[in-house]
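An instance noted here:
***
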Amino acid sequence: MTPTRHNPHSDASALATRRRRVAAFTVIELLIVMAVVIVLVAVLLVGGASWRNHARIAQTKTMIDALDAIVDEYRVETGRYPDNFAGSTLSDFFTRVEGVGDIPKMVGSLKDSGGNDAWGQPIVVNTGDAATRTTFESYGPDEAPGGGDDIVSGGQP
């Protein structure tokens, strides 16, 4: 029997082949990583939409609270509530109350909103007469009256 000769070059090429296979990702591994990344992005997008909605609700509540403060300032200065605003816009409201007391300072950034809530819908001005408090209403996230998501001044439902 002839002894087999050991070829050192064949061992090196086999080792190099094994290293190439070990160092690379398989297609399955790449697909799994891509699927995990896609799921994480989807979760963040859905959660982000919820956070944006909560921020818009808070922004609109703050706006309506500021409008309530303007109505209170008007009553302190004139002894009555602003009246005859049925169907008016916030621009009309600002024009009519702006010359009273500290109201011009209070109106500032509210005018920049263009009289719209955080969803871009007009804030509704509701009034009765000089003895009835003026209220403000945003139709909320669904942008339609009713539905339980309306935001009304004075904490009214």
Observations:
- The CA atoms of residues 60 and 117 lie 6 Å apart.
